[in-house]
Each structure stands twice: as C-alpha cells, then as structure tokens.
C-alpha cells in the first residue's frame, strides 16, 4: 500500500458553506456560514483518501472577490504548497466566480502539486445537495498522482475540468459547469480517470509568479448590444488600463462605438475584442481592422478569462504584439 497524500482543504465561503432553513431550500439559503472543518466532518470517508488538514482562509461569497482577494488566495495557497508536508490543495469556493479564481491560480502558481477548486450548487442542508460528494471527489483528485502537473483544476458534478476552459453556465442546475472542449476526466467511486490533458501553458510555464505579483491593473468588461451608449464606453474606460469588449458574435462592434473605442486606445487603454457568445474564436482583423485601430483580440478566451489574462499580461508588457501573443499562448 502506498502512503496517503497530505492535502490541505481551504475554506473561502460560497454555497458549499451555505445553510438553508429547510431541506427544500435548494436555491434560497444563506451562503458562506459553515466552517470548512464542519463541512469536512460530514464526509468521514474522505480520511481514507488522504491525510487532511483544514484552513479557513475567507468566509465570503465569490461574487465579492476583488483582485485583492485573488492575490490573497494565491499567495496563501502558494505558501502552503511550498511546505514539504503538503502534497496538494483543495479550495472550497463559491461557484459564481470559481472560473476566474481558478484561472488566476492556473497562470500564477509556481508548483506542479495539484490544486482543485470546488463548489456546490446546493448547500449541504438541501435535498440532493452536491456539496458532500463534490468535496469528497475534489479531495480524491488532489490526492491522486495522476493530477500532478495539470495546473489548477475545477471539480463539479463528477467532472474534472481545466481552469483554463471551465465556466459556470447555469444559474441553478447541478450540471452548471461546462468546458467548451469537454472535461479532462471524471471521478467515480473516489477514483479519478483522465482522458486528456491541458495543452496550453500554465503554472511553471508562465512568466507570472504569485510570489512577486503586486496590485493588478484595472481591467473592465463591457457587454455589447446595439443600444449601448458611447458615454457608457467612455465612462468605463476613464480609469481602466484595459477593456474587454464582449462584442456580439465574432466580437462585432456597433458602428457608433468604433470611435469611442479608438479614442480609448488613444488614451492608452488596451482594448480587446471578445465575444459575448460564451465560446468560439474571435478572428483578428476579421470583423474589424484590429491592426489599424490598435485593438487586441482574444483567441477563444471568454470575457471573464480574458480579464484575468489581460491583467496579468499588463504587469509585464504594453506592446501590442507582445500582448496579442499572450492570448494565443495561454
Ligand atoms: N454567493 C455564492 C458564491 O459564492 C453563490 C454561488 C455558489 O456558491 O454556488 O459564489
């Protein structure tokens, strides 16, 4: 028998730490109230998977998470992973912005040890809650040698997702997490099974280290529609260093918004054309002459991921070509 892995289970709040008044409260309940030790005590079987230690890092809904929260989570996880008696980490997290925190860790942690971010769509108090099994399975993933070197993973509803691709795609269903190219694998009976690996660079192969990152530049997102007023674009770009323009279809820009966006570039704002569709590639110089306007385009990153990536990119580069290369690489 091989030795059990040492896994740190970190609580940050969310539905997985929620409590409803009655078992039929699957969607109306108080979030971020139960401690991680308390939640873990409901799954004693998890002790057979790994040696477990807990830490309550935050107790907050992930809709509140600012860039400072991201940095705080990343720096603490990094410190814990550096300890010789920690083999991996599970982070219990609200599902609303799990895709952002996980992608941020995927790009900035300098460790090959498994990090699994997990949430639940129903609180532990609800009928057919996914909290206990998701946490149990996430521990199984973090403790398994086949998860080493895959970057940050997100576990939900039997599925192991790469942090790069996964996004929350339902406001209430248990089956809320989707990766456009499918999950990396599954867990069944506490046993992870992988069918593919992330192909884009992450963790040790990126130029960003959580250890040295300071305050992140302000990057905002604007959701496009035909009646969007130019003043709204000007207002949101007034303080930002970067703007993710979640355009219609293939990153399309309404005719009356081209000048406000070009003006933002003249003021030093890095404008990125993305798509509000939720998946697919935005073709550079396709719908718009990006080279002529000094605009960037995402490759296939959805707006929430593009915001994380541009914030990191802007900590090291300002040159258009270098910034564009980041969207092609990560
Ligand atoms: N407020 C919660 C959050 O932290 C709601 C979503 C959830 O955890 O499922 O994101």
Automatic annotation (TrEMBL):
The active site is at 15 (o-isoaspartyl threonine intermediate), 15, 95. GO terms for molecular function: asparaginase activity. InterPro entries: AsnASE_II, Asp/glu_Ase-like_sf, Asparaginase/glutaminase-like, Asparaginase/glutaminase_AS1, Asparaginase/glutaminase_AS2, Asparaginase_C, L-asparaginase_C, L-asparaginase_N. The keyword Hydrolase applies. It holds the Pfam family Asparaginase_C. The keyword Hydrolase applies. Residues 6-199 form the L-asparaginase N-terminal domain. PROSITE patterns: ASN_GLN_ASE_1, ASN_GLN_ASE_2, ASN_GLN_ASE_3. One of its GO terms (biological process) is asparagine metabolic process. Substrate binds at residues 62, 95-96. Residues 218-327 form the Asparaginase/glutaminase C-terminal domain. Keywords: Hydrolase. CDD domains: L-asparaginase_II. Belongs to the asparaginase 1 family. NCBIfam families: asnASE_II. This is Asparaginase.
